């Protein structure tokens, strides 16, 4: 799906609201893993402002990845989600499961979060890095071959380097997946991921190819076939 500017934000927020409604039509509660980075902020704000009928009390919020920083750090994905969404909707703090990025022992933090993560997420919202990463699964990283563990520490080539991230099995098990990307810096990687050869070791975002890709015009500018 390709939309520009405000329509991109609306389309992504609508995808989330519709996915939540579809899950709750079948199940009593809905688990949603949020994307980090900058692109989601406007989408989360729009969701909080416009989609007032989302039954937040029936949601359990998780994260696809986190930077290994305290939750009040400007680089924290939790902080971004808290400021743009979670502090602005009626959700119980006990239903918000943030990744403990500040924990000294990253392996223990990953294990702890893994035990808290549902077997299959109902909704997984992902971003796209200009290098083809998604969550904190970076090109060529050993974590990409992980098939047992569902949450692992990882290392980002750009600061903050320390990360915690879900792994490919979690992406594969998620019931509904969307990936968002905006801006010209994502155009080449979006075209390679969607229209190039399948090699998630080089383009980890391809683990989410079965999902809905929501792009703005710039990010979609190099696509031969523009998805509807
Ligand atoms: C993170 C993210 C990461 C992000 C991409 C895109 O913690 O950095 O989860 O996967 O989605 O890097 O980031 P932008 O939206 O800032 O371009």
Give your account of this protein's structure.
This protein has 228 residues and is of the alpha/beta class. Helices cover 29% and strands 16% of the residues. The chain has six helices and eight strands, in the order αβαββααβββαβαβ. Strand 7, helix 6 (187-195) and strand 8 form a beta-alpha-beta unit. Helix 1 (5-24) crosses helix 2 (40-50). It is globular and about 45 Å long. 46% of the residues are buried. Residues 35-39, 65, 67, 77, 127-129, 133-136 line the site of 6-phosphogluconic acid.
| C-alpha termini separation | 5 Å
Work out the strand percent.
15-25%
* Strand neighbour order, sheet with most strands: 2-1-4-7-8
The helical percent reads 25-40%
Q: What ligand species are in this complex? A: 6-phosphogluconic acid
- The structural class is alpha/beta
What can be said about the biggest beta sheet?
Answer: 5 strands, parallel
Q: Unreliable segments (pLDDT under 50, ≥5 consecutive)? A: none
What's this, in brief?
This protein is 29% helix and 16% strand. With 228 residues, it is α/β, with parallel strands linked by helices.
